[in-house]
Amino acid sequence: MRGIFIKFFILIICCYVLEANNLQYSLIKKGTLDDNTVLVIGGIQGDEPGGFLAASLLATEYNITKGSLWVVPNLNFISIIKRDRGIYGDMNRKFDKIKENDPDLKSVNGIQSLIVDKNVSMVLNLHDGSGFYRDHYINELENPKRWGNSCIIDQESLEGSKYTDLKGIALRVMDNINQNILDAKHTYHLKNTQTAKGDKEMLKSLTYFAIKNNKSAFANEASKTLPSHQRAYYHLLAIEEYLKVAGVEFERSFELNPQNVKEAIEKEIEVVLFDNKFYLSLNNPRAKIGYVPIPKNTALEYNSTNPLTALIEDKGGYVVHYGNKVLTKLIPEYFNYSDIESSVKIEADGVLKEISLGSKINVEENIKVISRPNVRVNIIGYNSKLKDESDITVNKKDIIRNYSIDKKGKIFRIELYEQKDGANDKFIGMFLVEFAMLDLPNDGVLS
Questions:
Q1: Rounded distance, CA 127 to CA 411, Å?
Q2: Which of 15, 321, 373, 381 is the most exposed place for a label (fewest CB within 10 A)?
Q3: Distance (Å) of CA 299 to CA 14, 15, 17, 121, 267
Q4: What's the CA gap between 365 and 410, in Å, rounded?
Q5: Is 151 helix (H, G, I), strand (E, B) or coil?
Q6: pTM for the model
Q7: Number of other CB atoms surrounding residue 57 within 10 Å
């Protein structure tokens, strides 16, 4: 897992804790850059999780073996966090004209620059739409005014673009999805908005901006009546077929079916603060994680294995978001940081090894941290009444379960501090221990 984590960091610009309205989108570039790059965009509207979850899986779980792919999974990040279509108005209606004082201006201009980039040949925008689109009225949920489960084009063809036959490509994608639908009601249909003929709303959209700039553009809609993981499943079916049209080859880390998509969405998320000094492995975390060592008067720098992760400062702590969900809240305790090297020797289940701080180690029965001069060890949840807990073999039964960072009571923090005579401790770093068993005492005070 750590190898994937480090590789992913190469792709993601370092983030800082900000006010929510300063969040910026991520751009993940995959494969080998060429002039046939496919640009996939999720999250232009913050209340459409199927789209932004599918795009995040594309960014994290897919490996491009041939061709070039750019992914923006969180275009309207603040609205994703707020579970709002668009807290500053509908961003997908700002691609014709946008006011200079519009808070969305930076994001809109940024994505426009990507669309018109000389390397981009195809643009795909992911949406979740209401009901199920049908070309004639069937009932309230299935009719021409609905958008869900449809392949969207602005016009049938675009002469001079890389992929001129927009209708033919969309029909190919539609047929592929329909061969893999979960229920007949989910059948996809083609929706041509014929934007240039006067659709006032679509004239302002992202895909039509691409069309005006001679870039082949499509939108994929999944129905809001479906659970998020099924929406993401349909989006991924569409994405994969568009990639095949463009000759982009890929591998993914799971077999494509709704259950595997759900598991991938719920996959453990890793977050590191301050260059791996503090590390969190968030798998069903507690609502609050207390006493997090943070340097005073320093912007909270972080990285994550998932681009939908954001840390937002809020009421004496930092709320960790994953898309539109709150994972946990970090409650800080302020320390100066040490510059001592970031590794430690431990004995896990009787085996001596050296590990890096900012990592997680799996342990069956017990762990011991080997002592070092001027370094004290604090095993969070182990009540030894000793200031330094190094050179002590600690069994799983010795640690108070409620001090775990996860609700199952398996994952615990071990922290190291530089200790010098007459000076306050400095935080060196920490690592996590995940015990195999769950029979830990369930008393004590929540950390």
A1: 37
A2: 373
A3: 12, 10, 7, 38, 28
A4: 12
A5: strand
A6: 0.92
A7: 28
Strands of 78-233, DSSP E = 120-129, 132-133, 142-143, 150-153, 189-192, 216-223
Residues 42, 232: Cα–Cα separation, whole Å: 11
pLDDT of 217 > 50? The answer is yes
Which one of 221, 244, 266 terminates a domain? 266
pLDDT tens digits, one per residue of 348-365: 999 999 999 999 999 999
Same-domain check for residues 40 and 179? yes
190, with CB counted inside 10 A (0-12, 13-18, 19+), is: middle
Answer yes or no: are the C-beta atoms of 46 and 127 closer than 8 Å: no
**Residues β-bridged to residue 376:** 417
Can you give the pLDDT at residue 19? Answer: 52
pLDDT, position 8: 35
- Do 96 and 196 fall within a single domain? yes
**Which of the listed residues 266, 296, 312 is the one where a domain comes to its end?**
266
Residues 6 or more apart whose Cβ sits within 8 Å of residue 41: 55, 71, 72, 75, 111, 123, 124, 125, 126, 206
- Output the domain CATH number for residue 151: 3.40.630.10
Domain that holds residue 320: 270-435
Q: What is the pLDDT of residues 171-200, one digit of tens each?
A: 999 999 999 999 999 999 999 999 999 899
Q: For residue 102, is it within any domain? A: yes
SS3 at position 51? helix
What 8-state DSSP symbol labels residue 399? B
CA dist 230 and 201 (Å) reads 28
Tokens 């340097």 belong to 295
Element (H, E) at 262: helix 258-265
> What are the structure tokens assigned to 172, written together?
């190919």
- Say yes or no: 205 and 321 in one domain: no
Asked whether the predicted pLDDT for residue 77 surpasses 80, the reply is yes
| Residue 288, CA distances (Å) to 40, 196, 305, 319, 428 in order | 34, 52, 20, 9, 22
State both tokens at 215: 């870039």
Cα gap 77→62, rounded to integer Å: 22
Number of domains into which the chain is organized? 2
- What are the structure tokens assigned to 393, written together? 């073999």
Looking at residue 297, what is its pLDDT? 82
Q: Any residues with CB less than 8 A from the CB of 406 and at least 6 apart, and which?
A: 283, 284, 285, 286
